[in-house]
Amino acid sequence: MSTLISRNVTLSDRRTSIRLEPEMWEALNEICDRETRSVHEICAQIDRERTQSGLTAGVRVFILNYFRSAATEDGHAMVSHGGNSKAPTSQ
Q: In terms of Cα–Cα distance, which of 39, 46, 34 is closest to 70?
């Protein structure tokens, strides 16, 4: 049994489906909440701008890049998570 969840999205005037892991759907929904945009709007943007071979791959890369950019020092500082604090060093 697959752990992937299939959902329909509308890209401009066409409807398609993408299959993602539950965690990826959660991450995409979090991005939509943060950006005050719908899943359909985000996926349409990804579809227009993607260079990957398929929409599902494009969505995964988009999610990865979104949270990667938020994990930088500048990204943390913008949301008051980082500032000048350094990651703990191992001893």
A: 34
Q: Residue 48: pLDDT above 60?
A: yes
Look up the pTM and report it.
Answer: 0.77
Q: What DSSP letter does each residue of 23-84 carry, written as one string? A: HHHHHHHHHHHHHT--HHHHHHHHHHH--SSSHHHHHHHHHHHHHHHHTSHHHHHHTTS-TT
The whole-angstrom separation of Cα 42 and Cα 46 is 6
Which among 31, 34, 7 is positioned nearest to 21, based on CA atoms? Answer: 7
Nearest to 42 by CA among 16, 61, 68, 62: 62
**pLDDT score at 85:** 44
